[in-house]
Amino acid sequence: MLTTIVSRVLRRSLASTTLVCRSSGTSTQSPPNELDNVVHLPTYTEDQRHRILQIINERSLDELSSFDITKTRAKKLDNWKLKNGPLKELNDILYVEGFGLKVVQKFYKSLLDTDLNTTKAHLKTTRARSIPFCTPVMDEDQRKRIKSSVAVRIGVTTVSWSRLELDPKFPGPQITHWQHHELNDKKLHLAELSRRCLYVIHQIPEADCYILENPQMAQINSNPGSIDQQNVNIQKAQITSIISYALIARAEPSSSNKTKHNLYFLRRFLASRLFHHLVGTERVSTEDTMLAMMGHQQRPDEDYVHFPSELCSMYHQMERYQRELLGQSFLLNLAFVRLVLLQDPTSLATVSRSKKNPTNVEDVQDTQIIQNNVKNLQDLKDYEIRIPKAPQQNEPCLTITWKTNPDGSGPDDPKIYYVDGYFRIMPSIRERGQQQQQQRQPEQNQRQ
């Protein structure tokens, strides 16, 4: 009897527990509402729909990247098309990872605002010109308004500057002023350092904008160096801050709320890369390039810069280290003018990180320059040719043979090498070593 009562109680408790579990499971796992996840795009006309789908399905990855879309999203869209085929409806793009409602609206708007007849070359050029060579990025209106610039090269104890002006009278920029100023070698108190920097600022001429090289960022290191080295870095940072603030204060007040920038920081080593003065992370001398540019006054070309005679004399009268610092400030200014203001395609290609094929002499018509300026091949040994394009450094571009043998060859056939912005005819390192070994061989035989 007792066993029967216990079994009935247990059966009722198990039944109630099962009922509670089923009811709770039903209440917590209700089917999701699919209408909550529906995203509605704006209404487009049939012509707009056809135009958007045509651009997305027919344009390449590089062309899509030129619109208002990141390169990562453009690559995901291109991969999705390869896997699933072309887009059939405007909403299909929402299936691609990274494309939300706001992103798609901005992307479609840029597609509708762009001319369908825009060529592939124009899109690539526009993309290349948007490279941020300076900080802050310069807008198009500001770029067109700037007619003069001053570049300031700041050291621990020196300040050098140069001023370039874009004058329609000259085929290229004109240098109107440059100067070098020495500060005290020892560590200065901030009050004395500020006073000397203010004197330097009064010497810097007015211009539409001012350029400094982007300063080196401090690296976290377990061995920060000696206290003297830390003081040197601090003093250079103090000079940069004081001069930067004073130059920014020269900006004219803007009537609108839009900030008007007049100070730009060019990317570090950019000028050295443009003029081939960078070996690894070390800069080489700028003196050869400066002298070559000054020597081009008699025959202007695409690299022409107008140097007044008094500034050339001033340059030659300076000490060598002063000429080097003055040249760095000038080339920093010229790099800014060519890359940012003029947006010279040759200069943009030179500093591009993508690998370029070596440029032959025929591509820049330097063969004709050789024929016009050199009567005898023997004169080419010390002859230098300025070129507008940049082949790979220290790579042979052309071989010249002496007309001494019937087969047209000679004992020492030189090659044209591209070194430091010039075509130079000289033997390779291996050939020079062989020549030196041949010269030493008779001496060794005599000693033996």
TrEMBL record:
Cellular-component GO terms for this entry: mitochondrial nucleoid
Biased composition regions of type Low complexity, renumbered to the chain: 434-448
One GO-annotated biological process of the protein: transcription elongation by mitochondrial RNA polymerase
Gene Ontology molecular-function annotations: DNA polymerase processivity factor activity
Region spans: Disordered: 429-448
Protein name: GK20570
Species of origin: Drosophila willistoni
Upper classification of the organism: Eukaryota, Metazoa, Ecdysozoa, Arthropoda, Hexapoda
